[in-house]
Amino acid sequence: MSKKQLNTSVEESQSNAAARRAKGEFVRGVSGFRGTIGDRDFPAEPGRYHLFVAFNCPWCHRVTLARNVLGLQDSITLDVAFPGRTNEGDPVAPNLWEFNPARIATLTGETLPECTADTGTGEGHRLVKEIYAAEGSNEGSVPVLYDKKSKRIVNNESAEIIRMLNEQATHLGSVIPVADRSDLYPNNSALRDEIDRLNDAIYISINNGAYKAGFSSDQAVYVVAFEAYFNMLSELEARFASDDRSFLTGNSFTEADLRLFPTLYRHDPVYYVRMKLNGAKILHYPHLWRWLCRVYALPGVAASNSLVHCRQGYFGRSWNNVVPLGPVLPMRYPKAYLHPELA
């Protein structure tokens, strides 16, 4: 049997992963649940599926974006974990995603209204890890696409979840007519090839690259990731500047835009500091900034996430648990995303 070819737009090579981590490199693991809505086991039906997410997680942001821009908010239910994972005093273990709507955010001194209990499984689990354990898995990541009827995890790979939501949007109960709904992966071979190439480059240098930089404990590994990240930003800026296009592939919002957005949404207010990506802000790339504002203005996009959750989740896990309040100039975020003229 031939070895499965690695899809570098979805996951990275696990070759010598333990040794690479020991040397200070961040190596993202591989998702273990890879079912598909539309298969015999998971038919496409309105009201059947549920998402477990954390708003600070950019991979979760992909699926909440897809859910919203495809008009699936009413037909795919949603639970939101607290952005900070369990602490050392947790009775089960630290560093686990938990559903805890009563937990206080240090940034606000209050509970976060978006956070929920587990309403998807019918079991009232506190920990995401318990949802996996019910299926004999040791995983504990989000997002999780869950089948409420069969009480099974369908998929926990965000790239595949957004693709299947797009393919099955009508059957899943989208409230947006087909003629008015974004097609994230149009049935055009040349356009799909272009989207695939963009996905690959963006995943390696931007999406996963931010983590390669921010979570590295080796200066040389960090430098490589830092340079790749900003080189790709410059390439994308030039792509938009060449013909002043609205979106990455032209005039239509596609999967490539959706996958780029969560990282750039976080860059100025979070990643610039937390991921040590302080080479420049997106504000310093006028075409990318206007693209970012253009996407943020699309129906459903602003409601798909929360920078309060992002700040709390990323900085709340730092060594002193203090969450920075900025940036405040030229304007606080996300209000700044309503102002393309700032760049």
DSSP helical segment count? 10
The largest beta-sheet arranges its strands as 2-1-5-6
Per the CATH scheme, the topology name of the largest domain is Glutathione S-transferase Yfyf (Class Pi), Chain A, domain 2
Unreliable stretches: none
- What is the C-level CATH assignment of the largest domain? Mainly Alpha
- Helix vs. strand class: alpha+beta
CATH architectural designation of the largest domain: Up-down Bundle
What is the ordering of alpha helices and beta strands? HEHEEEHEEHHHHHHH
Largest sheet: 4 strands, mixed
Description:
The protein is about 40% helix and about 5% strand. The protein is an alpha+beta fold. The protein folds into 2 domains: about 50-180, Glutaredoxin; about 190-340, Up-down Bundle (Glutathione S-transferase Yfyf (Class Pi), Chain A, domain 2), CATH 1.20.1050.10. A 4-stranded mixed sheet has the order 2-1-5-6. It has a two-stranded antiparallel ribbon with strand order 3-4. A hairpin with a 4-residue loop joins strand 3 and strand 4 (about 110). The longest helix is centred in the middle third of the chain and has 26 residues, at about 190-215. It is globular. The N and C termini lie far apart (about 55 Å). The model has no long low-confidence stretch (mean pLDDT about 95).
